[in-house]
Amino acid sequence: GGEGADGGDLPDRDTADAGPRHLAADRAAFAAVGDRLLERARAEGDLRPGVTSEDITVLLWMVTELAEHSADLRPDAYRRYLRLLADGLRDAPDRAPLPDGPDADDVAAISRRWASR
To answer: Does the pTM of the predicted model rise above 0.70?
Structure first.
């Protein structure tokens, strides 16, 4: 994709114009940036072995749900759990191997079910 106004790789979109026709392209651009960040963290030895982009997607869903449901009571509540999740993604000598997680097709199916609620 092209560079956004911020110099990044995500496309510029006026939120009012970000309809379904842009969704696939935006999702692909976001995934490409995320994959590069994961590869960089993996190369630097900072990422726990076995973490996938699908894991990040599901973790973001979890934190987003908390943020949505706590916004009127504790708008900052998600920050604690985001930090706990981020710390768990870091590699450390005493980490147990991760069990198998969902693949891209599983995550897509879960996403469709989640969106239809």
So the answer is: no
Q: What is the DSSP letter of 8?
A: S
The pair phi, psi for residue 6, each rounded to 5°, is: -85, 5
pLDDT in tens, 34-79: 899 999 999 999 999 999 999 998 998 999 999 998 888 888 888 9
Which residues does 28 contact at the CB level (< 8 Å), separation at least 6? 1
In DSSP notation, 6-55 reads TSSSSPP--GGG--HHHHHHHHHHHHHHHHHHHHHHHHTT-BPTT--HHH
CA–CA separation, 63 vs 89, rounded Å? 14
